[in-house]
From TrEMBL:
Belongs to the eukaryotic GSH synthase family. It holds the Pfam family GSH_synth_ATP. Its EC number is 6.3.2.3. It comes from the Eukaryota. Residues 275-391 form the Glutathione synthase substrate-binding domain. Pathway: Sulfur metabolism; glutathione biosynthesis; glutathione from L-cysteine and L-glutamate: step 2/2. The lineage of its organism: Eukaryota, Viridiplantae, Streptophyta, Embryophyta, Tracheophyta. Its cofactor is Mg(2+). This is glutathione synthase. Coiled coil: none annotated. Keywords: ATP-binding, Glutathione biosynthesis, Ligase, Magnesium, Metal-binding, Nucleotide-binding. It comes from Penstemon davidsonii.
Length: 559
């Protein structure tokens, strides 16, 4: 497919303030007012922004020549010997503080803790990010939480919106079948827990913060992302004479703390002090340490039962205990008691936290689907419930971007405006005008299936080929996809570290803002943003998943 840099539009061309694409007086009537039909333009290669989004020091490693007017920091100007020292210290820090993943080269690294460890792929220094856009992403997070909750309660909307997708996407069809069964038995989720992450890119030409997706299942890296922020603060402190950057400009990142607090409060709301929190995991998980950080915090910071329980063990303490189970193990060891209690391996389950179950590969047999249905039928708190899971699909994201749909779920006009401002162009493939334009100019679109985890999207000329094939075959396969406006963020210099080595590259970044939501019937217990994940990838890479091997973990430096 066409590389990112060959698709990057030259920023000196005219563009409309209401459009993330270049100005063209011939517009298409589209659901999002800030997306207009792009004109044909010449492309520029490896453009690096000069609009003040980078800090500048001369000959870093020698005496500093700081430019106070629009300061720019270029990591590529750091002397090689200083990069070597910082890289060594970063590797030591990561090893001592648990910024680790399983090594793909080690056969047991995804199954046995402590075997085959390697530092997580990281950027050596934080990425600059506008403070105003950071505040915007934090402000809108609780609104997205509430939106997900309200969408989840509208079973008719979910079923109807995904009805065409159901016919051609077997995975989504199975999820919808479980959801339909819950509707048929009038299953109510009184306690609803959401641990979400909304991902954004900052469009360079318009400076609009545009949403890539909203993750409602298995929002990964709350543990490791906070460690990267700490690593970068440590390096800025240690090398402050060389870098002259303020560690305080890296915002606090407490995602893992608030995720643990949310799980603890959900466990408390369930009101059974002997029940456990069950983590649903994959059979092999090289990102297990991100998960273990969360549940170590849950155990150590919430050792006592809620005061309402007035419950103590013989040692006068009570821990929120957790167990890890695969879907197959849940099917084998699980049972549903007459009162709706889920019991797995002899343990009553208060909260089910999914770090698996989001991809078709997680369901290799009927055993895994039986486990998913069993959990949904239970009275355990699910994170996410099947309705929350479906509310996070790409098709629902596209449906919510249609005119007047947000008004179905949100009343506050200011909240609606804030959410809508984040929407990129999103369309169904039954829109012939958009499909025609995407075939003519595929570089301006991304085709997205209803999948999570990275590596699934279609870019560049492959968009054109896929659309032409679907038109020729005349099948309904197009219902499995949506079209999304391709966002062109600033390309910046960075130093990336992977497997003990560092190298310079030009990169783009994606900001994910975590949020926690807990509701018990009409009472909202928690609703707030709680930290972030910055992922940075080389500008020539389309995909951005860290676990999938496309990107590195990063932090942000507010400017």
């Amino acid at each position: 497919s066409t590389s990112f840099t060959t698709l990057f539009p030259h920023k000196s061309k005219l563009y409309s303030k209401s459009s993330p694409f270049l100005f063209n007086p011939t517009t298409i009537e589209l659901p999002n007012s800030h997306f207009l039909k792009p004109c044909n333009i010449s492309m520029a290669h490896n453009i690096i922004s000069s609009q003040g989004s980078q800090l500048k020091c001369s000959a870093i490693g020698d005496d500093l020549d700081i430019h106070t007017e629009k300061p720019i920091f270029d990591p590529h100007s750091i002397k090689p010997n200083l990069i070597q020292k910082m890289s060594y210290d970063a590797l030591v820090w990561s090893s001592l503080h648990g910024l680790l993943v399983g090594d793909r080269a080690s056969e047991k690294s995804g199954k046995v803790p402590g075997v085959g460890l390697v530092h997580a792929p990281v950027s050596l220094l934080p990425m600059l990010f506008p403070e105003s856009n950071w505040k915007q992403a934090c402000e809108v997070a609780p609104i997205f939480n509430e939106l997900v909750d309200r969408v989840s309660l509208d079973g008719k909307f979910l079923q109807e919106s995904l009805s065409r997708t159901k016919k051609v996407d077997g995975f989504t069809s199975r999820l919808l079948d479980i959801h339909a069964k819950m509707l048929d038995i009038n299953k109510k989720e009184e306690i609803r827990l959401g641990l979400h992450r909304s991902d954004y890119m900052l469009d360079e030409q318009t400076n609009l913060l545009l949403q890539i997706e909203l993750n409602t299942i298995s929002s990964s890296f709350p543990g490791l992302s906070g460690l990267v922020s700490e690593l970068h603060r440590s390096l800025l402190h240690q090398y402050k004479q060389n870098l002259a950057l303020d560690p305080a400009r890296i915002p606090e990142n407490k995602a893992v703390d608030q995720f643990a607090e949310a799980l603890s409060k959900a466990w408390t709301e369930y009101n059974n002090p002997s029940a456990v929190v069950m983590v649903v995991v994959q059979t092999e998980e090289r990102n297990m340490y991100d998960q273990h950080w969360l549940f170590t915090l849950l155990k150590e910071r919430y050792p006592f039962s809620s005061i309402e329980f007035l419950f103590k063990l013989h040692d006068n303490t009570f821990q929120v205990r957790s167990i890890r189970k695969t879907l197959a193990e849940i099917d084998e060891q699980g049972e549903l008691l007459p009162d709706g209690t889920l019991v797995v391996d002899g343990e009553a389950v208060a909260v089910v936290y999914f770090r698996a179950g989001y991809a078709p590969t997680d369901y290799p047999s009927e055993s895994e689907w039986r486990a998913r249905l069993l959990m949904e039928q239970s009275c355990a708190v699910k994170c996410p419930s099947i309705a929350y899971h479906l509310a996070g699909t790409k098709k629902i994201q596209q449906e919510l971007a249609k005119p007047n749909v947000l008004e179905r779920f949100l009343e506050n006009k200011d909240d609606i405006a804030k959410v809508r401002k984040c929407f990129a162009g999103l369309w169904s493939l039954d829109d012939s005008t958009i499909v025609k334009d995407a075939i003519e100019r595929p570089g301006y679109y991304v085709m997205k299936p209803q999948r999570e985890g990275g590596g699934n999207n279609i870019y560049g000329d492959d968009v054109k080929l896929a659309l032409q094939r679907m038109e020729k075959e005349g099948m309904e396969e197009d219902a499995a996809y949506i079209l999304m406006q391709r966002i062109f963020p600033t390309i910046s210099p960075a130093i990336l570290m992977r497997e003990g080595s560092s190298h310079k590259d030009h990169v783009i970044s994606e900001l994910g803002v975590y949020a926690t939501y807990l509701r018990n019937n009409t009472r909202v217990v928690m609703n707030d943003h709680c930290g972030y994940l910055m992922r940075t990838k080389v500008s020539s890479s389309n995909e951005g998943g860290v676990a999938a091997g496309f990107a590195v973990l990063d932090s942000i430096y507010l400017v």
